[in-house]
Amino acid sequence: MAGGNGKAFGRRVAFHRKKLGYSQREFAAVLDRSETWLSQVERGVRKIDRMSVLERLAVALGVPLPELAPEQKVVAASSEAPKAATTLSLALSSSEALGAVLSDAHSVDLDRLDAGSERAWEYAHGSRYDDLAGLLVDLLPDLERAERQTDAEAHRRACVAKARAYHAAAGVLSKLGETAAAWVAVDRAIHAADEAGDPLLMAEGAFRLSIVFQATRRFDLAMRAAASAAEAIAGLAADGDPAAVAVRGALHLQLAVAASRINEGDAAYRYLDTARRAGEQLGEDRNDYNTEFGPTNVLLHEVAVAVELGDAGRAVRVAARADAARLSPERQARLLIEVARAHAQLRESDAVVSSLREAMRIAPEQVEASARVRDLVADLVRAGRGMSPEVQELASRLKVDT
Q1: Which of 187, 188, 294, 381 could form a disulfide with 386 if both were Cys (CB 3.0 to 4.6 A apart)?
Q2: CA 312 to CA 216: how far, in whole Å?
Q3: Could you report how far apart the first and last alpha carbons of the chain are, in Å?
Q4: Residue 401 CB: number of other CB atoms within 10 A?
Q5: Distance CA 21, CA 4 (A)
């Protein structure tokens, strides 16, 4: 984006940023970029040649893409969808429910289905996406049949197993950027949870729906989904049910993150305080309804909120207090990615590389699928770190040009 077009584009970015009332530092934090990066864009000296970055700018500014860059020819990102994303999406696109209705009744092995849904979450928490996709391709049809060919208590067990499996699918699909498929999975999970008569399993659905909404930048819907569910189960939590306390705490963590992403810092920290009190009430890290809620997860989300609000120093200090070893590989890697983002804001390149390499060691499939990680590595390359062997290794695995 060189020459006159680059400067014109930069002036439009600056105009709309100021119209929203953001400083360069504040808006750069919204974009997960450095203030220097944004300054270079607005001065027309930095070229944006990836559609994903340009689209993110347009969304953050609230401006249609053709209006923001009418003259710009942008090269679309050439990232190929991970195999797990394709496999899971295809599994959700098949007519398993219709096949289950029309198929002949046969014996249902509920123990096997229960074990399968538990294993699905082992894979999800372990960021083993390919293993999860392979499991669910066969498990989901069996769960659809089991729901329709059982009654009474057996029917409830089948519905619970089905909800858990679809929740696992939704959790991974949202991380892989397959938000439409994730939405379908959440919807099926909530329906199954309703059939099972399990309000906390339904609330878990709202928790995962909030994550999907955030992935599509519908923060208003994300907050509504989480807030309404938190209110609905408030009575169960007030009665001291530990699982209800945990799920409600997890919903408040989603509220905190969503608030931080719309730059509502005071609200974000209020939601965090509510979640922190829930964690203190439990007194331990738990995994009720696969939310991994507890004091350590509250710290992880405090790091994420601080990063979103541009307070990188606070993020690094909080991360130092979090013993992530007690969390799943998925959460450990997520914390490390947030720490890398904080160090990027502080322009501490070596610490960014160190955090990302450790995250890659713990959960390679998760890191390789992360658009945020690709952006961090691309920034390292643009900052002149592309000749570093460590950065070259990351760039190679993430298919980032050096």
Answers
A1: 381
A2: 24
A3: 19
A4: 9
A5: 26
Output the six-digit token pair for 300. 């992880």
Q: Are 57 and 48 in contact (CB under 8 A)?
A: yes
Question: How do residues 108-139 score in pLDDT, each as one tens digit?
Answer: 799 999 999 999 999 999 999 999 999 999 89
**pLDDT (tens digit, 9 = 90+) per residue, 133-166?**
999 998 998 998 898 888 888 999 999 999 999 9
The pair of three-digit structure tokens given for residue 181, joined into one six-digit string: 């498929």
CA distance 87 to 74: 29
Burial class (CB in 10 A: 0-12, 13-18, 19+), 152: exposed
| pTM metric for this prediction | 0.79
Question: Interhelix angle for 3-20 vs 35-42, to 10°?
Answer: 120
The token pair that represents 200 in the structure block: 């906390």
**DSSP-assigned states of every residue in 321-352:** T--GGGS-HHHHHHHHHHHHHHHHHTT-HHHH
Which DSSP helix (H) or strand (E) runs through 29? helix 24-30
Domains and CATH numbers, the chain: 3-68 (1.10.260.40), 83-197 (no CATH)
Which secondary structure element, helix H or strand E, spans residue 374, and what is its range?
A: helix 371-380
- Could you read off the pLDDT of 283-295 as tens digits, one per residue? 999 999 999 999 9
Say if CB 255 and CB 220 are below 8 A apart.
no
Nearest to 88 by CA among 137, 145, 144, 142: 137
